[in-house]
Amino acid sequence: MFQPPDPFTLHPRKSPLTTPWEPLYADIRADRWVLGLEIREPHTNSRGGLHGGLIAALADNAMGLSCGVVLAALKIPSSGLVTVSLGLDYLGAAGLGQWLEFDTDFIKPGKSLCYADATVRADGKPVARAHATFKVTGGG
């Protein structure tokens, strides 16, 4: 059975979109969430490579969760975040058996919008860069 690297544990937040991609893992830090998975067949496209749609969805998830952590730490009221824009630059390929990490490495929080950037790495090598803008909901 696959064991993720320390300190990753099973991702506690489930959604209907990500259920077919389980198991997903999370490293929940004081300033962000880092998500990870072992690339398996359900994560691939028709050519057997990692699907760009999976990268987009999980980068969005990691950045949104990370914005939530920062907003809470700054005591900025929020009941959630909604993606306003999402952009990705695909930098390389990844394939079966590689460890994939989604690490949010920049967050600019605000009362109405939160901005984030993330790097996606396969076995430590960057395969994508993502950036997103989130609407802060339920604040104030």
How much helicity do the residues have? 10-25%
| Secondary-structure element order, N to C | EEEHEEEE
* Portion in beta strands: 35-45%
Average pLDDT value?
Answer: 95
Distance between the termini: 46 Å
The structural domain count equals: 1
* CATH topology title: Thiol Ester Dehydrase, Chain A
Please report the number of helical segments: 1
User: Quick one: how many beta strands?
Assistant: 7
Which strand order do you get reading across the main beta sheet?
1-2-3-5-6-7-4
User: Ranges with pLDDT <50 over ≥5 residues?
Assistant: none
Judged by helices, strands and strand pairing, the structural class is alpha+beta
CATH class: Alpha Beta
Question: How is this structure best described in words?
Answer:
The protein is α+β, with helices and mostly antiparallel strands and 140 residues long. It is 16% helix and 40% strand. The protein has 1 helix and 7 strands; from the N terminus they run βββαββββ. It starts with 8 loop residues before the first strand and ends with a strand.
Secondary-structure map:
Elements: E1 9-10, E2 25-28, E3 33-38, H1 52-73, E4 80-90, E5 99-108, E6 113-122, E7 125-137
Antiparallel strand pairs: 1-2, 2-3, 3-5, 4-7, 5-6, 6-7
